[in-house]
């Protein structure tokens, strides 16, 4: 299907993370861009050189200031940026500053002729720069909030300087007011953002999605994860994805320590991220032979891991309530995993677990409760089959990619072309007062 008979409608996406980054925002924004391109839209993405979750620019992208790629119908415009393997407040500020400034030419290329700009946050400075340029080009702006910033960084202790916090919150309010529309991925995040904008009615929930065919469950007898990693009669507890502060991997180590005398229970961690080295050091200090670490698996293998695990652990620190929705929860539900979610009561994760009845919830940080539920599942006191079926059914009803993104495509085909954004001058004056 084509957006026009003559030429496709052009859509700009401005995001600090994108394909080929395999986790978190990079993966979910790629899925959105790819969906639009498959439906005949001309998608141009201004983004960084890939660096996540390792916090190092990938080897094949080093040595260039700008680069252009084409991948499955999407034009990708990349820019150099500073990045440090051990992120701190200073290095994060340098990262965002360099990314925002060096990316300006690529942002202009992406925005020229665009009908709509999707501007993705986190990376608050990048989103501010993108919003200003899109405003100058009179392109309709949709702010896509994946993490509520700077709240997430403040509440996780990653940002502590009072001046930086105050400036960041002021900038967040400005881009909320500057946006024509705001998309976020959870109801709690919607409420949090509404408190910082003058027009809460323009906020809508557009959740992350999954491909029902890509993540179709794989039976144990055909499962490559079981064949390659899991010895016979072993009960496999899996954590996969980003290894960051939000994930509270210390909880997994404490639970593994409680279960070290259960020889058939093993923990498998697939991933990389800012706390990877600290996690491995702590595992060694505790001498946990029942915990193994592996690189992220190839994308085709993900459904084998999620559906082949006896338990998939989705863990969050107690501070993470309404500032983020973990994308791994969506993919785990979609793959029909047996999920244990260690999360705060009242969080987005807890709400989705309750709505789906697709897994077991334990309090955030409670390693005793987590170990107890793993024991119960291992000993057959819980029928995991019913949980798996409910998880998959709920994901199909709520997060199917065609159902979520299909209506957005129809809306994009009706949006007036670039240069026709409404109230541009007065909006710009008000938003940056």
Write the layout of secondary structure elements.
Elements: E1 10-14, H1 24-38, E2 42-48, E3 66-71, E4 74-79, H2 89-102, H3 104-111, E5 116-121, H4 124-136, E6 140-145, H5 151-155, H6 162-178, E7 181-184, H7 187-194, E8 203-205, H8 224-229, E9 235-242, H9 249-258, E10 265-272, H10 276-286, E11 291-294, H11 302-308, E12 311-315, H12 327-334, E13 339-343, H13 348-356, E14 359-363, H14 367-378, H15 384-398, H16 401-414, H17 424-431
Parallel strand pairs: 1-2, 1-5, 2-4, 5-6, 6-7, 7-8, 9-10, 9-12, 10-11, 12-13, 13-14
Antiparallel strand pairs: 3-4
Helix pairs in contact: 2-4, 3-4, 4-6, 6-17, 9-10, 9-14, 12-15
What brief labels describe this structure?
433 residues; 2 domains; Rossmann fold; six-stranded parallel sheet; 14 strands; 42% helix
What does this entry look like structurally?
This protein has about 425 residues and is α/β, with parallel strands linked by helices. It folds into 2 domains: about 10-210 and about 400-430, Rossmann fold, CATH 3.40.50; about 220-400, Rossmann fold, CATH 3.40.50. The chain is about 40% helix and about 20% strand. The chain is built from 17 helices and 14 strands. The strands form 2 sheets. It has an 8-stranded mixed sheet with strand order 3-4-2-1-5-6-7-8, with helices on both faces. Strands 11-10-9-12-13-14 form a 6-stranded parallel sheet, with helices on both faces. β13, α13 and β14 form a beta-alpha-beta unit. The relative contact order is 0.11. Mean pLDDT is about 90; it is low at about 1-5 and about 420-433.
